[in-house]
Fold each of these.
Amino acid sequence: MARTAIVTGGTRGIGAAIAVALKQAGCNVAANYAGNDEAAQGFNAETGIPVYKWSVADYDACAGGIAQVEADLGPVDILVNNAGITRDAPFHKMTREQWTDVINTNLNGVFNMTHPVWNGMRERKFGRVITISSINGQKGQFAQANYSASKAGDLGFTKALAQEGARNGITVNAICPGYIGTDMVMAVPEKVREAIIAQIPVGRLGEADEIARCVVFLASDDAGFITGSTITANGGQYFT
Ligand code: CAA
């Protein structure tokens, strides 16, 4: 039977590529988004993938949204925690709001989404939790104390929860993309972006599909022995 997957932040960028790739792999996919209605409607019209609006930063909204997806598509087998934001600023200029917004979405959002699906996965003895972290959670990044902290937190979450899910057929893994050619990276000032590309040994930004293919593998039955792992996909920019 087809598995049901939720992809957060699934209507744009890396998330959209993941949603489409999981659909092509035979899953029933729900794409969550928080803000951009126009992009979500366009994505739905183009792909036929149903879209659901709620903020991953809000626990009750996640629980309600997941209940709706389960009523429409069936119990969630695969959760892809992809939704993420940046609020870059050097630390001496970083506001409390820039700190909490990023932590609430990128780290608390992972808790808020995983907690409501966890017991069902335990009962059914199958689950895949895949969280999109970042190269900048591994190496740190100037002007991203908030983002780097949130993404490093996602890796700790993954390693801890993997140990809890293992006996119940649930794998919990992370992917650390490097710089991928999405709106988020294109928002970095051009000069800074050029300097970043110069540090990538393969000499280019990554493509969203290159991350999506990692997700499809981790979500598959073939990846059942892989848990607590991090796939690094960054064009050779940083080795752990
Ligand atoms: N290392 C050391 N110094 C740096 C630096 C770096 N990487 N980047 C900038 N600086 C320095 C500048 O040279 C400048 O120094 P001077 O004042 O001596 O000239 C100073 O920091 C910048 O100060 P500003 O007051 O001009 O900074 P600002 O308030 O205008 O902020 C910025 C600018 C936010 C840092 C901007 O440069 C920026 O956006 N940088 C990119 C940060 C980045 O890589 N973000 C990743 C986004 S993509 C992503 O996050 C996806 C993913 O997972 C990979």
Amino acid sequence: MAERSGTRRIVFTGAAGGIGGMIRPLLAPLYPGLVLSDRVKPKDLQSGETFVAADLGKPDEVAALLKGADSVLHFGGFSVEGPWDAILQSNIIGCYNLFEAARQAGVKRVIFASSNHAVGFYPRKRKIGTDVTVRPDSRYGVSKAFGEALGAMYSDKHGMSVTCLRIGNVGPRPLDVRRLSIWIAPEDLVQLIGIGLEHPDIRFEIFYGASDNEAAWWDNARAYALGYRPTGKGEDHRAHAEAEQAKIGPDPVGDIFQGGTFCSMEFTNDVKRAGP
Ligand code: 15L
């Protein structure tokens, strides 16, 4: 934990995105050397924040961004299901450019924002660990599984410390009944990032990005073993989540699987054949 208060250059891609907006104020006092990056500047950039624009699709720009960096928080890319070309450019090519530039720059640690959608076709009735086969529920989920695989390769082949966070849903409280199982408070996400940035034993890890949720579908034992002590509890917000759920109609496919609407989108299978 000694480096925590240092000014090592920590690059945060995707800093102008939704998660970026929620965690930037929490990261700033912990990591004075934080460099925010995105294609466009966050509208609410604060006077003490450093920003460098970069397009993940352009290797030269990514290389310039990572020059002298100690660590990277890679949250950049397309954050929902989308057309193949958008996913390909941002999350496949962009993610490769990021890891390769990190290797060339001698970056020691990468924290990769993966997603629950890498395993979205597991049924809600199953509790899964981080060692299960991926079951992506979308092109987006496939791209997150790809990012995890890239991280494993850069860890094994080049000795980079890589932490993949299969993030559920970040926000002040769970948005609906599904999110009671996968919700993560911004403070807890910052705690997981801190473990990825500082824990001395990390080579390659996958953690679920979830708070202390009673309704959890995930076994996050490895994160707890490395010191994770989430403070958010989804159950404290059950009444709100159920009230919001009542406004949403049933989804005969999405309600069965962990990935919800990402599973029902474009679904042409028989539910009985998917996700046992
Ligand atoms: C994600 O991975 C998305 O980035 C976010 O927008 C939500 O859809 C979230 O998953 C979720 O599953 O709720």
